[in-house]
## 1
Amino acid sequence: MLADRLKTLAPSSTLAVQAKAKELRARGVDVISFGAGEPDFDTPQRIKDAAIQAMQRGQTKYTEVGGIPELRAAVCAKLRRDNGLDYEPADVLVSVGAKHTLFNAVVALVNPGDEVLVPSPFWVSYPEQVRLVGGVPVEVETREETGFDLDPERLRAAVTARTRLIVVNSPNNPTGAVFSRPALEAVAALAVERNLWLVADECYESLTFEGRHVSLAAFGDEVKARTLVVNTCSKAYAMTGWRIGYAAGPRPLIRAMTDVQSQVTSNPSSIAQWAAVEALSGPQDEVAKMAGDFDRRRRLIVAGLTALPGVRCVTPKGAFYAFPNVSALFGRVWRRAEGAVTLASSLDVAAFFLEEARVAVVPGRDFGSDAHVRLSYATSDALITEGLRRVGEALARLG
Ligand code: PMP
Ligand code: GLU
């Protein structure tokens, strides 16, 4: 009945875990969710006010496909202010969230059979988007021992004549790695040498707690000419529901992505675009304040996870995820009413946490590593403490 491409499509598991936790809560089950990566803060008032004013001014009609000129100018100013990058509004495309931006990019860049290097663990949507357009995602492992830093040598070894692009996501979802400058430089040099595109997903830039965020496109004109910089208002401004993501890059690529968007969604919401102008151009103090709160929660969750028997956790340097290794729990017996289960995968561990501790986490398998689970700590200190207490209690009951 359905197209062949649906045979391999996995729906987004991060969103699925969030939906499952919501559904359980609606049924009266008291679930603590570390599922979706979504700030628990409210969108700052100045941003909401800008949206209300836009509506009152009647800015409620179609806009330019690639975004209103004011927003594209605000993106350019942001990239100059925060990243030292020079772009003109014609080099910018605004889309319905960075997820949409990334999909426009693979539609514009990837031919059927082309290979896309995806450092692993990876955010769930990269490989699926590549497969949807007939491309081949190639997972290239990063190692826990290096704090999941980008591994230029492994990437080099994975390049073939079919390789089109490398996805570079720092700060990283799900590992929290902030890739080191030498590793980023080596990968940029590899892209120049082998004539590859670089997609720099910088959605968690504002949540860099250790190390320094470096934008790939800042490594000089040769690198910039093959880099698409991707960012979003979702995380920095607690604007996940507004759906505003953006990209800057070489003009022919931006034009191609805009043409794709013109046939698929047209412009993102006019109202959300005006809100985004205020988000990017107004005072930035809430961003630092929210980042400070996330940093405190990061320390809290890592200390709590590390104290659990059978769990070890690399300290994330950015984003708002902890990615603990739970493989020491494999082989332990979960005595369930329906029969005993020997834990053997991240899916089992996630199911055990949900049923026995009423704590929702995302299995690492969906991010490319079955030894791990992912917890989003974009939630309150009290819920982090209580969630980990429940997990500790459940672990004490394991055989
Ligand atoms: N990139 C990464 C690494 C993400 O985790 C997400 C999900 N929040 C996105 C892109 C897309 O975010 P949005 O579509 O909300 O802009
Ligand atoms: N990116 C967030 C996450 O990884 C939100 C859900 C999604 O877009 O996948 O949880």
## 2
Amino acid sequence: MCGIIGCVGRGDGTLETLVHGLSKLEYRGYDSAGVALTAAGRGVDICKCAGEIEDLRETLADRTLSGEVGVGHTRWSTHGPPTDENAHPHMDCTDDVAVVHNGIIENYQSIRDELTRAGHTFTSDTDTEVVPHLIEDALDDGADAEDAVRTAIARLEGSYAIAAVVAGQEAIFAARNDSPLVLGVGDDALYLASDVPAFRDHTDRVVYLDDGEFARLDGGWTVTQADGTVVEKTVDTVDWDPEETGKSGYDHYMLKEIHEQPRALRQCLRGRVDELGGTVDVGDLGDLSPTGVQFVACGTSYHAALYAAQLFQAAGVPAQAFLASEYASGVPPIGDALVVGITQSGETADTLSALREAHRRGARTMAVTNTVGSTAARECDHAFYIRAGPEIGVAATKTFASQLAASNLLALATAGGDARGIVPALRDLPGDVQALLDDSAAPAVAETYEDAAAYFFIGRGLNYPVALEGALKMKEITYKHAEGFAAGELKHGPLALVTENTPVFAVVTGDGEMARKTIGNVKEVEARNAPVVAVTDGASDVERYADHVLTLPETHPRAASVLANVQLQLVSYHVAARLGRSIDKPRNLAKSVTVE
Ligand code: F6R
């Protein structure tokens, strides 16, 4: 949530570099945006407004803004509504200091009261605005620019990634605590951002900042601790192309990312499954025979956790999935359990906090993440990468498929079980997803039901998390009411909601006991005149009771759930497209939620 960009060394191209970087970060927040620039011997110029990056571009068109050092920000509101005043950067009373911030400053109110008593004037509702005023005070006390920023940072409690520029200084000062920041090291210029895509067009060399670190970017870069001790940082190289963050001709990132699933799955599985031997190799993840596994995650990743827990249970390892935000309260002592955080971004505050709680209780922790160098990856004892490639659309799609594939690998490596059954299905999964994408009835289903009053999704076993995820995707991007239920629960209350205007999507795979029982539930809704959309591999006779069928290639039940989810992603996408929704940037949401 919220995106920060900064750059030094791009001369006349500084403003465009900042705005372009912000457009790459818009998935992190998009209710207001702004930039601040300065240069040697000059003041600080800022431009900011409510709205998206395009609105900022339009506002900039009427302004002359130049400078060779700058910072920019795209916001997802936490304190105060999205207005021009609350947009970042924020300035001090003298307009000599500009600050952008991601996170929440918990003690801002007491600092603001103190500064107000001392005569400072505030112009926004934000927590961030205390920072430039603190810097102003330190400058007034005679500190140089770097020391003034350090002095301000030392006063802050909470989570922050902060970048500041000071009039006339050809430098950016930055600090991180509980919110991501990464430096980009180009040949002639330096960059700073919340995430690599912001500057990936300019460099692939990156330095990840850790909590408590302070960075100065000018002709060169230094990273220090709060007390000034120099930290030797490693320069890493990212291994994906800038094109991977473009739309490649698709109308939306979400559609592009749905279509990238075959590739994402191939990348996830590459080198990790040995088909001949029917074994998997997940690399060195420490002792892979825990007495129990606890998964912690949020949103879509929580649905992956529900799926993963079932795989471990099936292999005889006690496993449970917890909503990360509920983990701290009421979870029994851990003992020898492995605690696995499933998190696409690796930066979700609730998940990080649950993993830290697990660590405090003495558990071994593992991050299953898409983001190399993310906080979760660095803080956990082990990291297992799902390798889905960058996901820009706010609604998670390809990362969910890759989380499910990665869960299969981990379950096989950790808990054992019948690898030969699933390994060939995993091998075929990318091709099966492609076949489904090439010939899906989802657009027609979306057309039929775009005006529905609500959408319900049901499934059992591994298809229960798929039902939950189908509903989450639908509500996220269409803004319409949608709920996912364990199929057996429908008759215990939700059936009262079912009418002829509420299509029920029934995920039924295989022809076993669970399929038969779910078909019983399908008959219950059919008897109430609700339209039924069966998502099925055709192994059972559910089609007889369905108004529409979304067909899945025949495969192993574990892989069938992945495929069923792809059909549901497509339905949600096409309903949202028909309704003209802001698919890649749904209202009120942000891709990376770095506050609890
Ligand atoms: C929904 C979605 C969110 C995330 C959740 C956790 O489409 O993307 O529900 O899954 O915010 O995010 P990560 O996986 O980054 O921890």
